[in-house]
Amino acid sequence: MSAATVGLLAGMALGFAAYFGGFWAFLLVAFLGLVGLIIGLMLQGDLEPSDFTRSRDRQ
Question: Are 11 and 33 within 8 A, CB to CB?
Fold first, then answer.
C-alpha cells in the first residue's frame, strides 16, 4: 500500500470522525492514529524506544 493511499485513508477516517463526532472525536482519532503509527514503526524495526530519550552525554 503506498503512502498516498495510507494518507487518503487516514484523512477520510479523520473526516468521518470530525463530521459525525465533532472536534473531540477528531482529536481522539488523530491521537490514536499517532499511537498506532508509533507502535507499527516499533514493530517494523524503524523506531526504537531510545529514540524518544536524549543522551546525557554532550560531546
Answer: no
Q: How confident is the model at residue 57 (pLDDT cuts 50, 70, 90)?
A: low
The model's pTM: 0.71
The answer to whether 29 touches 45, Cβ cutoff 8 Å, is no
Q: Which three cell numbers stand for residue 8?
A: 487518503
Whether 42 and 48 have beta carbons less than 8 Å apart is answered as: yes
CA distance 43 to 55: 23
Rounded Cα distance between 46 and 26, Å, is 27
Q: What is the DSSP string of 12-24?
A: HHHHHHHHHH-HH
d(CA 28, CA 1) in angstroms, rounded, equals 24
Q: Which residue has the higher pLDDT, 23 or 53?
A: 23
